[in-house]
Amino acid sequence: VLDSQYGMYVWPCAVVLAQYLWAHRRSLPGKRVLEIGAGVSLPGVVAARCGAQVILSDSEELPRCLQSCRSSCLMNCLPHVPVLGLTWGRVSPELLSLAPIDIILGSDVFFDPRDFEDILTTIYFLLEKNPHAQFWTTYQVRSADWSIEALLYKWKLKSIHIPLHSFGADKEHLASSSLPGRHTIEMIIISLAQSDGT
What we know:
Order of helices and strands: HEHEHEHEHEHEE
Radius of gyration: 16 Å
Strand order of the largest sheet: 3-2-1-4-5-7-6
Number of domains: 1
CATH class: Alpha Beta
Number of strands: 7
CATH architecture: 3-Layer(aba) Sandwich
Helix content: 25-40%
CATH superfamily: Vaccinia Virus protein VP39
């Protein structure tokens, strides 16, 4: 997909997150996974192909992205994967009626700082409903002052940095693509902070 609009392109972060899923493929069968801001849906498709029960989502205001999710599923023989319109920061009937979730995926969703709080509001809502769930996310470092630390603290969330070398994603070429090695990409896992302040 060569259209470089946000959700119509396989961004390097998606390749890195897909690599993490592949490295953990033995733990995925039966897991309930939601990908937010899915767009082309590479991480969600990989999770589904590895046996997870996946729901793909993108903004209800972006019908082309939702169609891209559906097309990716069809091209990967996953016609029964549901695709939902979920807009960050908005409590919708679709969000309220989601089944329990084990893992939330998001690749390069922390792109526009104006969206950061809406994203974390949605993540907090999902983690409150699913206290043992985790948000697995990759992001590209585009600015030296990029940070979500204050928002994590505000929403009582914690993060753990996952080194790319720990799952073989620190290579110049990953998945036959030269993209990941040319960008500074990080991975974190976000979960609810414990009541003891950690």
